[in-house]
């Protein structure tokens, strides 16, 4: 399908034309990762579809349908929804501070009747949309270095502080790093980046010593020396490293991972499922999985680069940054290269909330591809 055909009145709005514009390589890679997750959840449950594998594949099927449905939506509607979605997410985060449910010492959830949810998940999309909307109407000079950069800093900073206070350091990191990545991709001056890096290093130590909760500080100290308390705070990292190393080149075989099967590996269905993959399929299996993730990220970035609107480019790049950070942080955490912060491996780990957020984001990415020739108005206004 040529660009001229896509821009011809009537042609571009046909469902069949839109479906033909979906990148099915991207969809296939998503299915491959989710399929690997289903297989591993079956394995770590001792060769049973319950309690994780069957729910995981059903959720993915529903989320995939949601993603494909969202890809049909014209970016103009995403563009108009940017500020309202961000505002609703921010209001809900404030509501968490006032009336949120406390579970396991953290106040992160809101309950509506029998349902509960984490507003911080909404903000992962809300921050990306709001930043994309702001940069769409900003000049190159404003994006590079200007007093106006206070606006994107506020867009990122408000939800970051609210989520960190819950406390939810992992999600706060994702929001902050995604925002920083988008500012960088928008053309932020290197002097500003260098100054921010220095400020982060200088302010990091006092924050760790006096601003963090005790359990968060212990995670940092445990990361620096996990063998110092192998049966206590360092247990997760030590067992994860054992699983990673015991897999060798080709692994022990499907369903034969001793660390996961004998219950040594903690959170084997969520945060540390990548360690289970490494134990059962070895270095080759781990690299294959990471190549699938790399393929998803590269295709998504390619889609972002093809958009005719700056909003589409920034929004798609922001969603991709969040996904890449999930993979990077979880992988580093499992390997003992980063503190344990409760960030799952997307589409591989068990959990519906993260999957829904990721697939909604990818719905936006695919909508950018399907409607890549759409032109959007300039400006920062609400509508």
Textual characterization of the structure:
- With 383 residues, the protein is mostly helical.
- It has helices at residues 3-7, 15-20, 24-44, 53-70, 75-99, 119-136, 140-144, 150-164, 169-185, 190-211, 214-224, 235-246, 258-261, 273-306, 310-334, 352-370, and strands at 101-103, 106-112, 115-117.
- It has a three-stranded antiparallel β-sheet with strand order 1-2-3.
- Strand 2 (106-112) and strand 3 (115-117) form a beta hairpin.
List its salient traits:
about 375 residues, 3-stranded antiparallel β-sheet, mainly alpha, single chain
Compact overview of the structure:
The chain is mainly alpha-helical. It has 16 helices and three strands. 67% of the residues lie in helices and 3% in strands.
Shape: globular
Determine the mean pLDDT. 87
Strand adjacency order, main sheet: 1-2-3
Helix content: 55-70%
Spatial gap, N to C terminus: 32 Å
Strand-pairing-aware structural class: mainly alpha
Alpha plus pi helix count: 16
Order of helices and strands: HHHHHEEEHHHHHHHHHHH
* Computed CA radius of gyration, to the nearest angstrom: 21 Å
Strand content: under 5%
Low-confidence stretches: 1-11
- Largest sheet, strands/sense/barrel: 3 strands, antiparallel
Topology:
Layout: H1 3-7, H2 15-20, H3 24-44, H4 53-70, H5 75-99, E1 101-103, E2 106-112, E3 115-117, H6 119-136, H7 140-144, H8 150-164, H9 169-185, H10 190-211, H11 214-224, H12 235-246, H13 258-261, H14 273-306, H15 310-334, H16 352-370
Antiparallel strand pairs: 1-2, 2-3
